[in-house]
């Protein structure tokens, strides 16, 4: 995959920007608590405002990219991030709270642009491996970004850390703008309104199934992080949480690389279902060595599941709305991350840390079952017309330009 022209620099710049974006909440939390001397609840409100903005802004920015192109939208997002992160250390809390939401709306759409570019730069047979590699870089960003922010906070002021995170986001976004990767293949038409199918033609049961499974995956993952901390706190070993999370991340990287090398793709619902089943037994662990072993099984399935979601979205979304579709995917993933912690936290408070792993695993299983049932529905009939041809390929179809048909009696995604 790295030999594909333009792939290596794209993934490198994407890794830089994504590592900073995964650390932005941590940087703002530390600034509000340490520099402004406010409570963690106040810091959580800022984090929630930023996350809400990102979730709402993803589809909107994606739609604008579909219509106007990458170089018309990305500079505005980069400029907004530059102004916000530069100004944060000089702003009072109330302004930071409101500006965080605005910054989230205009967050550089690194993930969605990278996924669009991968779909355009690779042949259909290469995309599963390419999206697996993209998921691996995502795992690396989650492992590196917050850890670097915490280490830097011990050596520098919270304001300097905020500036550093903002600088990395700006540099990453500017790098993607300079690379200007293709977002459509050579045989896909331009972004005119006539080339954009109506939303009801592509946002059907199968796309909703994929988005639901993406949401369920991140609910599970954020819940697992919380359950790890709760388990080790009960055992008096909370200082080992970083080691367990690192093992979880590294096994996910290994799983993504192995999945990308397999000759055939696996259904998204099956991968998510296996991930849910592998998560529940982790609640039996009582100390950090056993917990490392317990989360390794779930880790091996994490990157493959995330890459399968990205692959399915790219195959179901027509070229004219691919930006909006990947924006919806990012919103679903962010919503899952935001909801997973409170849901699993409530389960832990009502039972025990083991209940957190059970709740996270059951959330994944429920999302997998929902996705399977939705994907069994036959596709809606398409009316001939300029917006209906060519039809997007579906995972159960053979022709590239024909309406997909689900295999009778089976889940197709």
From TrEMBL:
Pfam families: MFS_1 (PF07690). Keywords: Membrane, Transmembrane, Transmembrane helix. InterPro entries: MFS, MFS_trans_sf. Residues 378-396 have a biased composition (Pro residues). The chain crosses the membrane at residues 29-57, 93-110, 131-154, 160-179, 208-232, 238-259, 266-282, 354-374. Residues 376-413 are annotated as: Disordered. This is MFS transporter. It comes from Planomonospora alba.
